Amino acid sequence: MNLPQPVIELDELTLRRFDGEADLPELFQVIEESLEHLRPWMPWIAEHSRASTAEFLARRAERWASGQDYTYAIVLDGAIVGACGLFRRDDTPETGREIGYWLHPAATGRGAATRATRALVEQAFRLPGVDYVEVVHDTGNHASGAVPARLGFTEHLRRPAERLAPADTGEDRIWRITRDQAKARAATEAG
């Protein structure tokens, strides 16, 4: 099976597999500094602690090996500034994957989430049998929605969703890009 690359170099931006306990102090600090920025949209922030961050990191290697979840540290100018992942939920068909991302507030507005997502789309289509990739976010989270819109995803559907985070509206927006759409977009961008 073709696995996603463990390290993806994108100029000054790098995506790399988390390194378990070694990343704990830096990741914990980045989350601490991002609490107010992430709290409206990320339900896991309510349970944030050093122990929950350690538990998250401890599960990364197993989830990578199982093919369930490929999670990366987003590293900008040598420092962790967020995380992104390519994953499959239990109810997602084998042919689909989802991408999620978050950034430290100081790293926003620099194209990091867009570049990371573009790289993860490429990695998703390295996996055998993957025909589409989705980004799912609350309809009120316009910053998250701007990323797939910039990358040529199309709105696939909206669905009711449980309100888990303080700013959730109760409706998810699902963006989708297919293998063929991604290939056509890459050819157009290459010129």
Which characteristics define this entry?
8-stranded mixed sheet; alpha+beta; 8 strands; 5 helices; 191 residues
Describe the structure.
The protein has 191 residues and is of the alpha+beta class. Helices cover 35% and strands 29% of the residues. It has helices at residues 24-38, 50-66, 112-124, 142-150, 179-190, and strands at 7-10, 13-17, 69-76, 79-87, 96-103, 132-138, 154-160, 171-178. The mean pLDDT is 95.
Compute the average pLDDT. Answer: 95
Instruction: Return the structural class.
Output: alpha+beta
What is the count of β-strands?
8
How many angstroms separate the termini?
31 Å
Low-confidence stretches: none
Order of H and E elements: EEHHEEEHEHEEH
Q: Which outline best applies? A: globular
Strands of the largest sheet, in order across it? 1-2-3-4-5-6-8-7
Main sheet, how many strands, which sense, barrel? Answer: 8 strands, mixed
Report the C-alpha radius of gyration, rounded. Answer: 16 Å
Helical region count?
5
Strand content: 25-35%
Percent of residues in helices: 25-40%
